């Protein structure tokens, strides 16, 4: 009995030792897990901060790029025909008289060009068509003109009137008609270069010029006119006639 008792006690002791060893191993593993978590927490925080900083920097960079694109994105110059002068009754009368011996008449016209870009623009070619009651009566041309960024500049264009047979009708609408005004429509295209400050070409573009409705009997739109303060009588001052020799 004593040997069995001793053997049982040994088995119980061994079981207790195994249990103690298992608890110690479990505790050590818990310590390892806690140690690993304590190491990962600062790393996770660092990664989170790094990702946040990268996101913030990226948003700031994108905002700067978007602002830069919005500011420096190229825009077509705005063309206006308000600051041109012509004593219409005399000029149209002259056109009526010239229609007997000429096929077209040329005259110079001041054209206002507003450059909305931050950089200067060189207008290589501005070409327009002039219409009266749906029929083309002439053309407008302007070449090699520089317009500084953010300003309105005056260019000297050349107008060619070819439909001289309509001059009498235009004169009647302008001077003697009580229910009609002399209304012209100008359409066209513009090709231009945007220049760096050193005059090197940044980019070359072309665009359509929005149609302009010109009521000669009324005050013109002067939003983009350089010499609007010089226009004293808009019904009498529109174009600069060119002195023409009789053929």
From TrEMBL:
<keyword id="KW-0472">Membrane</keyword>
<feature type="transmembrane region" description="Helical">
    <location>
        <begin position="54"/>
        <end position="73"/>
    </location>
</feature>
<keyword id="KW-1133">Transmembrane helix</keyword>
<protein>
    <recommendedName>
        <fullName>Late embryogenesis abundant protein LEA-2 subgroup domain-containing protein</fullName>
    </recommendedName>
</protein>
<keyword id="KW-0812">Transmembrane</keyword>
């Amino acid at each position: 009995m004593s040997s069995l008792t001793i053997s049982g006690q040994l088995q119980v002791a061994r079981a207790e030792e195994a249990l103690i060893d298992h608890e110690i191993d479990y505790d050590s593993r818990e310590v390892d897990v806690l140690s690993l978590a304590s190491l990962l927490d600062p790393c996770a925080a660092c990664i989170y901060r790094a990702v946040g900083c990268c996101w913030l920097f990226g948003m700031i960079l994108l905002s700067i790029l978007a602002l830069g694109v919005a500011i420096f994105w190229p825009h077509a110059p705005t063309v206006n025909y308000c600051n041109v002068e012509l004593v219409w009754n005399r000029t149209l009368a002259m056109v009526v008289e010239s229609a007997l011996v000429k096929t077209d008449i040329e005259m110079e016209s001041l054209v206002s060009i507003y450059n909305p870009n931050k950089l200067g623009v060189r207008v290589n070619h501005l070409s327009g068509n002039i219409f009266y009651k749906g029929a083309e009566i002439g053309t407008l041309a302007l070449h090699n003109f520089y317009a500084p960024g953010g300003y309105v500049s005056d260019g000297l264009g050349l107008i060619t009137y070819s439909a001289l047979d309509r001059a009498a009708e235009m004169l009647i609408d302008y001077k003697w008609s009580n229910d009609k005004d002399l209304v012209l429509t100008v359409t066209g295209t513009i090709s231009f270069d945007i220049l760096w400050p050193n005059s090197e070409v940044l980019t070359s573009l072309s665009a359509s010029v929005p149609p302009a409705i010109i009521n000669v009997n009324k005050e013109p739109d002067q939003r983009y006119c350089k010499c609007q303060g010089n226009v004293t009588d808009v019904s009498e001052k529109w174009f600069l006639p060119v002195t023409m020799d009789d053929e």
